[in-house]
Amino acid sequence: MPMSIDEILTEAQVLPNEAKAILAEKLIASIKEEIAPQITKNHLEEVKKRRDEILAGMVRPLNGDECLAKVREIIDQ
Q1: What are the structural domain ranges in the chain?
Q2: Segment 11-46, tens digit of pLDDT
Q3: Which of 28, 39, 40, 53 could cross-link 32 (Cys pair, CB 3.0–4.6 Å)?
């Protein structure tokens, strides 16, 4: 039985950031025929820019689950 999207996401979240960026690029590339080429190009450029910023230490990645928990906490107040 194939993995669910949630299972895949859980597995992917433990990857190093560079591997996550590569995975994102490959996923976007795998559906590019359904997306306008300029949109795909823009998305890939943004992914690469963010990856480079993380690798250069310009920004610090945040844990998605922690961020969502904080947002939910703010919304519930």
Answers
A1: 5-76
A2: 999 998 888 888 988 888 787 567 778 888 898 899
A3: 40
